[in-house]
């Protein structure tokens, strides 16, 4: 059986554990980011990560040692720029993404693309090392713990920052925490889907959950469950049919999103028909 085969290999088991942890962390953060119309931060920070990887390759430095501080610093820079009245969040992400891509392309063209850089571009979850696994575990545990502990503050800040401030909640502090957690998850998530697809781990689960759930809590739970199921199915499909792991996972998310849209449209249609029948 395929599942038994996957569980029999230590490196596949490690990849599965890392992927599940990162997927759940990204899906929970994605709910708040999507609701605040800041969902493309994942895409922007992944491009920043590509630029950092290009610099690391150019100077022959450790990819993670360069990427983590650069992406975290960029997350706070995006936070500062998006809060400026002269520059919106979308513009800030576009500017930083373009600049980072340019730097990465220049660095790569001068140095040449190596295997490690390709793994971060397109994802290589099956080659996750023990050190990567521990880093992912630590980041995911910190993210999940912070999300649970500060759930109320994140919830209030997401829906009504003005009300949160009036009640004494330091909204800037929790927005900064959200940006920090997102940056860390993006860095470790690049190992799974690569910098080109990592934003899907943030956007898809939240978008799907919002088609089904009615409350913030239900959307958060559904988002996490969808992320787990999509990752497992994509992982199994990748192993069974020798497909790229990252692309397989995104393909499953896409199917779920289409089904969620179709289900919502069907429910809306049925409610409309019921309303018409009750009138007559």
From TrEMBL:
The residues forming a coiled coil are: none
UniProt entry keywords in alphabetical sequence: Membrane, Transmembrane, Transmembrane helix, Transport
Name this protein carries in UniProt: Metal ABC transporter permease
Q: Which GO terms describe its cellular component?
A: ATP-binding cassette (ABC) transporter complex
Which domain of life does this protein belong to?
Bacteria
Membrane topology term: Multi-pass membrane protein
What does the UniProt entry say about where the protein is found?
Answer: Cell membrane; Membrane
Task: Indicate the family of this protein.
Answer: Belongs to the ABC-3 integral membrane protein family.
| Residue ranges crossing the lipid bilayer per the database entry | 12-35, 47-80, 92-113, 134-154, 174-204, 216-241, 247-266
Which GO terms are recorded in the biological process aspect for this UniProt protein? response to zinc ion; transmembrane transport
């Amino acid at each position: 059986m395929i599942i038994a085969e996957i569980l029999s290999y230590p490196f596949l088991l490690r990849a599965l554990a890392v992927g599940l942890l990162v997927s759940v962390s990204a899906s929970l953060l994605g709910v708040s980011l999507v609701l605040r119309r800041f969902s493309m931060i994942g895409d922007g920070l992944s491009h920043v990560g590509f630029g950092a990887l290009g610099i690391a390759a150019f100077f022959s430095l450790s990819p993670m040692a360069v990427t983590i501080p650069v992406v975290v610093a960029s997350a706070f820079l995006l936070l500062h720029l998006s809060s400026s009245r002269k520059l919106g969040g979308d513009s800030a992400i576009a500017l930083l993404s373009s600049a980072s891509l340019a730097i990465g392309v220049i660095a790569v063209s001068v140095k040449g693309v190596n295997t490690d850089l390709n793994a971060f571009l397109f994802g290589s979850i099956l080659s996750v090392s023990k050190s990567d696994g521990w880093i992912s575990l630590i980041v995911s545990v910190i993210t999940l713990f912070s999300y649970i502990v500060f759930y109320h503050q994140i919830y209030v800040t997401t829906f009504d920052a003005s009300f949160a401030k009036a009640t004494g909640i330091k909204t800037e502090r929790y927005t900064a925490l959200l940006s920090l957690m997102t940056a860390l998850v993006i860095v470790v998530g690049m190992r799974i889907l690569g910098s080109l697809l990592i934003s899907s781990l943030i956007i898809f689960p939240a978008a799907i959950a919002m088609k089904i759930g009615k409350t913030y809590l239900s959307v958060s739970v559904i988002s996490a469950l969808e992320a787990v199921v999509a990752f497992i199915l994509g992982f199994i499909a990748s192993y069974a049919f020798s497909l790229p792991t990252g692309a397989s996972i995104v393909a499953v998310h896409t199917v779920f999103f289409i089904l969620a849209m179709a289900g919502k449209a069907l429910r809306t249609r049925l409610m409309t028909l019921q309303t018409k029948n009750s009138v007559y």
